[in-house]
Write a structure and sequence with these properties.
The complex is a heterodimer of chains A (296) and B (549). Chain A is an all-alpha fold. Chain A is 71% helix and 1% strand. Chain A has a two-stranded antiparallel sheet. In chain A, a hairpin with a 2-residue loop joins strand 1 and strand 2. Chain A starts with 14 loop residues before the first helix and ends with a helix. The chains are: A mainly alpha (296), B mainly alpha (549). Chain A: Its EC number is 7.1.1.9.
Chain lengths: 296, 549
């Protein structure tokens, strides 16, 4: 129904509770998988499939309602506030891992090496450990395989090469998505679609480069999740970022599909704006990564 | 007006859904509802159920501690009980209780037709249920439920059996639920207020909730990140909390408490909001120092982000860190005192009546102050070395949670039940419930101060005989308190089914319209009791109240 000043209040929603069921199924399946149950992965995949179908259903409903003019400006503001604070929560999520990187690199690793109040720590635990960064810890965890066993030797990831290329890719994708937005505002659908195609393509190229980098790290450089704190922070930060790029690319693809179907008007295109904000957020996180993980 | 109505009708000519106005039939109404009142009810019922589940766990703990020696449960299970009791009470009872109040009351208090994002509202409730079910399922797993305490510190928590990934994912689901709920509250308050309901005229309950919602959005992802690292440390060979790989278990404590300290304020700020709403009504005076209440709430919220390591004075920190966190923590006493003085000043020379909600509120002001003072004692780092991880801290935080958060949830229940159901509750039983609760809660927790100061550690199933007497008294208090709560359950059910037979008026409480809002009339008290399924489908125009000074 709609209130007198046009506020839209939906009355029933089957999608949210079903999407929740999908998520729970994923969580239970993954947990069982980690506990060594052979059926765990299947349950998780089932949950994932369920979740995807449900989210698709939910968003199709929202898109249909939006295009039929059900929403007004006030609803649009609610959506935007929702997206804004969702992105803020994501910022805090990444802050945890950036904070972890800062803390281990500047505090706990030097303490293990005897700095500050860590003299006794060094003496009692690992007197031979030379603290520095990058490090895989006093026990030299992980590393290149020698005779099938980890040797404790690894190479850190350099900043120039693929990471620099990736920076350029993501930065240009930020430009193309803005160009697409200008197209939308100017009712230039051709520019909108081209801009979005370029953005999604750049995003996919980024993921491809990242995959290549990971492959190299694992097979040639001895750099793995298990390579001590350097490997842990490296893969956790870049991994969660890569996941967010994938999600962003999927969202933008949906927006691209909708643009091609003729959706969005200069005054009503929340989905586009939300996707663009999310994409810029992913961009900014990458800049942080490039500086703090790769460069410094 | 006529133009507006015409537009309204036109919309419905195009609507093909005949059931558009009312709720769905049967059980489906509750599953697929997007109505803020229905979802509020769901949250409140769920919180009440979890209050009894968590309470039963507490009684297992108190039964085991009734005497020295091991009587009823294995030590491992005892530790699971302390862990699960905390997690269930925090994430299953107190937080959902206040979210339920927010859902029911915020739209009605600010003159909005519903929450800003009703579908997401439905999802946040079901995610909460899913998260708690996942958590509860760990009780039946090989290796038992997590037994590391609710803080889930590594390396201890990494020894959990099959329950670990379930507990981690449960935290993720609860986190998503809370974030969605909080975003919804922010969007509702900033975007849905009726004309005239300016920010500085909002009821204090709304103010405290918007600030709480910011805390939630900021810190729930932090907890999610921390437990994610526990998961990868356990299953994916990372070494975030393992010194052998260059990590640090203390890092977990920093991250956890960066979440954990704001988290405890997430449970107390809405409590303050309820108190600031109820006390003026029963004192028949406007809230003393409204704007200072708003600023004090914001100050407490800000400070909550910069004091986290006062939970870690004993883990080993540079002395500069200890000093900084000590002084920063002491600062919190200032805005908190502002609030306590304001509540007292509101009651000063008021025409007070002592119905059950007011009794609980007065007990809250007194007993929360006590819990606050013990907090001040523990903020002093050198003293805290003595109190840390003893029953003193158990007494401290239970004083800030039980006679504060839980009491104010009860007070809110008594205050708004007549509005929600249209029936008056049984005042005599309510008063009995209050006096039993208020006396037994002190028998339960006050002796724990002595136990802690004498050196009894927390989270142990057995203890030295020197602690026997106070433990026995505490357990007796615990059982009286626990059983008294059945009166509340009785009252809720009885009131829903008709109560005393007296129908509630719109205003319910004498003075609620005038003093039950912030700078305007208490909007919810202008609506019928019970309010219709949809309220304020046309935004009311709200005029400020001018008070004579």
């Amino acid at each position: 129904m709609s209130t007198s000043h046009g506020y839209y209040i939906p009355h029933r929603a089957t999608w949210p509770v079903l999407a929740t069921a999908g998520l729970v199924c994923m969580a239970v399946g993954f947990a069982n998988h980690l506990n060594g149950s052979p059926s765990g992965m299947n349950i998780m995949m089932m949950g994932l499939a369920f979740f995807i179908v449900m989210v698709a259903g939910w968003f199709t409903l929202q898109a249909t309602e939006s295009e039929s003019g059900t929403y007004n400006t006030q609803v649009g503001i609610s959506f935007r506030m929702g997206m804004m604070w969702f992105i803020f929560s994501e910022v805090m999520f990444f802050a945890v891992f950036f904070g972890t990187l800062w803390y281990t690199r500047n505090l706990s690793v030097p303490w293990l090496g005897g700095e500050g109040t860590g003299a006794a720590t060094k003496e009692l635990l690992w007197p031979d450990y030379e603290a520095g960064w990058p490090t895989n810890g006093p026990k030299h965890l992980g590393g290149k395989l020698v005779d099938g066993k980890p040797s404790g030797e690894f190479e850190p990831m350099g900043a120039f090469g693929l990471p620099l290329l990736n920076t350029l890719l993501l930065l240009s994708s930020g430009v193309t998505v803005t160009w697409a937005h200008h197209g939308l505002l100017a009712k230039n659908r051709d520019q909108l679609i081209k801009g979005l195609i370029a953005t999604v393509t750049l995003g996919l190229l980024f993921v491809l480069c990242q995959a290549t980098e990971y492959h190299e790290a694992y097979t040639e450089m001895g750099l793995q999740l298990g390579s001590g704190i350097y490997g842990s922070t490296f893969f956790m930060l870049t991994g969660f970022h890569g996941f967010h790029v994938c999600v962003g690319a999927i969202i933008l693809s949906v927006v691209l599909f909708r643009s091609w179907k003729g959706h969005f008007k200069p005054e009503n295109h929340f989905a586009f704006e939300g996707a663009a904000w999310y994409w810029h957020f992913v961009d900014v996180v990458w800049l942080g990564l490039f500086i703090f993980v790769y460069l410094i | 007006m006529s133009a507006v109505v015409a537009e309204h009708d036109k919309h419905h000519d195009h609507s093909h859904d005949d059931h558009d106005h009312g709720p769905a039939k049967g059980i489906l109404r509750w599953i697929i509802t997007t109505n803020h009142k229905d979802i509020g009810t769901l949250y409140l019922v769920f919180a009440l159920v979890m209050f009894f589940v968590g309470g039963t766990m507490a009684l297992v703990i108190r039964a085991e501690l009734f005497e020295p020696g091991l009587q009823f449960v294995e030590p491992q299970f005892f530790n699971s009980m302390t862990t699960m009791h905390a997690l269930v009470m925090v994430f299953g009872a107190v937080m959902p209780g206040f979210v339920g109040l927010a859902n029911w009351m915020i739209p009605m208090m600010i003159g909005a037709p519903d929450m800003a994002l009703p579908r997401m509202n439905n999802m946040s409730f079901w995610m909460l249920v899913a998260g708690i079910l996942l958590l509860a399922s760990t009780l039946f797993m090989e290796g038992g439920a997590p037994a590391s305490g609710w803080t889930l510190y590594p390396p201890l928590v990494l020894q959990t059996g099959k329950a670990l990934p379930f507990a981690v994912f449960s935290v993720h689901l609860l986190g998503i639920s809370s974030i969605m709920g909080a975003i919804n509250i922010i969007a509702t308050i900033f975007n849905m207020r009726a004309p005239g309901m300016t920010l500085m005229r909002m009821p204090m309950f709304v103010w405290t909730w918007v600030i709480t919602a910011f805390l939630l959005v900021a810190v729930m992802p932090v907890f999610a990140g921390a437990v994610t690292m526990l998961l990868t440390d356990k299953f994916f060979e990372t070494s975030f909390f393992d010194a052998a790989g260059g990590g640090d278990p203390v890092l977990y404590q920093h991250i956890f408490w960066f979440f954990g300290h704001p988290e405890v304020y997430i449970m107390i700020l809405p409590t303050f909001g309820v108190a600031s709403t109820i006390i003026p009504v029963f004192a028949r005076k406007p809230l003393f120092g409204y704007s200072s209440m708003v600023y004090a709430t914001a100050a407490i919220a800000f400070l909550s982000f910069i004091v986290w390591a006062h939970h870690m004075f004993t883990v080993g920190m540079p002395i500069v860190g200890e000093l900084y966190f000590m002084y920063a923590t002491m600062l919190i006493a200032i805005p908190t005192a502002v609030k306590v003085f304001n509540w007292t000043a509101t009651m000063w020379k008021g025409s007070m009546t002592l119905e059950t909600p007011m009794l609980f509120s007065i007990a809250f002001v007194a007993l929360f102050t006590l819990g606050g003072f013990t907090g001040l004692m523990m903020s002093i780092a050198p003293s805290d070395l003595q109190y840390h991880d003893t029953y003193f801290i158990v007494a401290h935080f239970h004083y800030t949670l039980v006679p504060a958060s839980v009491f104010m949830l009860m007070a809110a229940g008594y205050y708004w039940l007549p509005k929600w159901t249209g029936n008056m509750y049984n005042e005599k039983v309510g008063q009995l419930h209050f006096w039993l609760s208020a006396i037994s809660v002190n028998i339960l927790f006050f002796p724990q101060h002595f136990l802690g100061l004498a050196g009894m550690p927390r989270r142990i199933p057995d203890y030295n005989v020197q602690f026997a007497d106070w433990n026995m008294i505490s357990s007796i208090g615990g059982f009286i308190f626990g059983i008294s709560q059945l009166l509340f359950l009785y009252i809720v059910i009885d009131t829903i089914r008709g109560g005393t037979g007296i129908k509630a008026t719109n205003e319910v409480w004498d003075g609620a319209v005038q003093y039950g809002g912030g700078g305007t009339v208490g909007l919810e008290w202008t609506l019928p009791s019970p309010p219709p399924y949809h309220t304020f489908t046309e935004a009311p125009v709200v005029v400020p109240i001018e008070y004579e000074h």
